[in-house]
From TrEMBL:
It comes from the Bacteria. GO terms for molecular function: ATP binding; ATP hydrolysis activity. Pfam families: ABC_tran. The keyword Nucleus does not apply. It comes from Levilactobacillus suantsaii. This is ABC transporter ATP-binding protein. Keywords: ATP-binding, Nucleotide-binding.
């Protein structure tokens, strides 16, 4: 079986700063994976590299066997921050751009998502509250029928009630064979969704485990496991 994501010996520097060191990771199709780590650990950087948006890495990154940044982009739907769009752009214009740029964009899914998220796409980008902007990014990202979804702190500005509603239904917006990687600091809120957990610490992936393995081997929930790894209560040789 071809892995959805297959990373080998990835090293990445920005200027003189080492950001990721010897990252090796394999993710199978169909999984929902939590990418956890403290502020500045490198989660966004790793997602941008997988998505083909950051360049200059050493090592290999394959998404469904595609190893160049340009070819990976076609397989990966990444929750981008809409930086290329103008404040006066209507959301429906941004939708049109996505529909043109991505052959896997589903107009039906988009309509279902904006209805579910209660977004009026006749609004201009500049008029959106922070939370509505985050919801719109989720709608655009999940409207693609992509093989891999990378959601980078997708719920950060969203109120807690909406967040719970979105988290509990996110699984239905993903095809069974698609892989979804979610980074989030609200670990306890996304824990029930996760098939696997990947933790970045000290510039590298220090552990990658299935959620059931964490419960069975350590007798811990995902949030407690994550905190134990960071606090050094679980040592490297136990991974
Ligand atoms: N444009 C840049 N130039 C130089 N260093 C950068 C740049 N962008 C990020 N970094 C550095 O790369 C490291 C990883 O940052 P990154 O944003 O990937 O972390 P993160 O895990 O996503 O953090 P957070 O949880 O705060 O979003 C940090 O030390 C950050 O300062």
């Amino acid at each position: 079986m071809t892995e959805a994501i297959d990373i080998t010996n990835l090293n990445y520097r920005r200027n003189t700063k080492q950001i990721l060191t010897n990252v090796t990771l394999q993710l199978n199709p169909g999984k929902i994976v939590g990418l956890l780590g403290e502020n500045g650990a490198g989660k966004t950087t790793l997602m941008r590299l997988i998505a083909g948006l950051a360049k200059g890495e050493k090592g290999t990154i394959a998404v469904h066997g595609q190893t160049t940044a340009a070819t990976r982009r076609a397989f990966v739907s990444f929750s981008e921050a809409l930086q290329g769009f103008r404040p006066g752009d209507k959301l429906s214009q941004i939708r049109d751009f996505y529909a043109l740029a991505y052959p896997d964009f589903s107009a039906k899914k988009y309509l279902d998502l904006i209805t579910f998220l209660q977004i009026d796409d006749d609004q201009k980008l500049a008029t959106l509250s922070k939370g509505t902007r985050e919801k719109f990014i989720i709608a655009l990202t999940l409207s693609r029928e992509a093989a891999v979804y990378l959601l980078d702190e997708p719920f950060s500005g969203i109120d807690s009630m909406s967040r719970k509603r979105i988290i509990s239904s996110i699984i239905r917006w993903k095809q069974d064979s698609a892989t979804m990687v979610i980074s989030d600091h609200y670990v306890s809120e996304i824990a029930a969704l996760l098939d696997e957990v990947v933790i970045i610490k000290d510039h590298t992936i220090c552990t990658h485990k299935r959620s059931d393995q964490i419960r069975r081997e350590f007798g811990l929930g995902i949030e407690a496991f994550y905190e134990s790894v960071y606090e050094g209560d679980i040592s490297d040789d136990q991974f």
